[in-house]
Amino acid sequence: MRRPNVPADAVHRRGDAPPGIRVALIASSFAPFVGGVEEHVARVAEQLQARGDEVEVWTVDRGERTRSARSFGVRYLPTPLPARSARDLVRFAVRAPGALSKWARAVREFHPDVLSVQCFGPNGLYALGLHRRYGVPLVVTSHGETLGDDNGVYARSALLRRGLRDAVVAASAVTAPSEYVLADLRARFGLRGGVVIPNGVGSAPVIGRVERRDNLFVAVGRLGRMKGFDLLIDAFVEADLPDAELEIIGDGPERAVLQEQIDRADVGGRVRMAGQGTAEVVAARMAAATAVVVPSRSEAFGIVALEAWRGGAPLVMTSRGGAAEFVRDAEDGLLVDPTDRQGLASAMRRILRDETLRRTLATNGRARLPEFEWARIAESYARLFRGTVGAERAT
């Protein structure tokens, strides 16, 4: 039975098991911005489209857009939110009607069968509003935004906390890349159940031939506190490996602080802040690395682990978070608590000195890659979306 508040043109009915459905992937961020969520959404969209579904990405309009050719449509939509100051409330009152009109138009023009929120932020609040207004089934995917937020958005925003709680209750399904993330949603946001759909990894960028080095540690990621690069620098100093080098690839708010830490430790000749790297640069450095180290204080999943496996690099991985659910200690990676400086230093010494261990970790890691192909990840979403739509149409 169609819900009474759904306009006649807002939901397509093509039988209980349609060969293709319309999916709106509602992302907190998208290209031209670069990151794990942006990559995840783009790859899932491509795979669903290739399967015969119709897909659009709806994302927060942050003032920058991309015109690159894609197999799916992208809408950049405004997401003003109310705030406490009188000036901000007035600004919201002025902007909100136009924003709501654009979101409603997206529903009328695309006719989504399911609203899939990817990383809950202002995008999630607007998606929840569409679900309530039109009755389109809602699926929420958390990417660890409640756990790994350096800016403390969830700690500061009662609106986001309440919205996520309401969305979790209203959603037909909730997914996350790890049980670690789902456990937080259960403990703090009222989730019951939940489904793990891991992140994926695609083919490596094309690079020239690169020689593997025997003295180079590489770390990659946004330079924020949660990523733990300060812990890695301390552990590298503690390891006392005079012939080894550490290269940190990435950019972010902690860059100057990390450089000061390097200067104070007087290891500037052996620890290098390489800045933001392209996909090709990252792949080339991983191909050269003796080992890739992921020292995060909290990691919802750990896409860098998959990239290390793809690049044939041995992996030293944080045990704090979702990676401990798929990385097998001493088989395809070394799991270490990065807040244990001596423990992390010991792991770095061990992997540098044990060539047999490095070969084992790299070989076993690369063998795991088929588990994380994007086609397989998209298939998990497709089954979930079809089940959601089928259940809705059966009521």
From TrEMBL:
The keyword Transferase applies. Residues 34-201 form the Glycosyltransferase subfamily 4-like N-terminal domain. Pfam families: Glyco_transf_4 (PF13439), Glycos_transf_1 (PF00534). Residues 213-367 form the Glycosyl transferase family domain. GO terms for molecular function: alpha-1,4-glucan glucosyltransferase (UDP-glucose donor) activity. Keywords: Glycosyltransferase, Transferase. This is D-inositol 3-phosphate glycosyltransferase. It comes from Microbacterium murale.
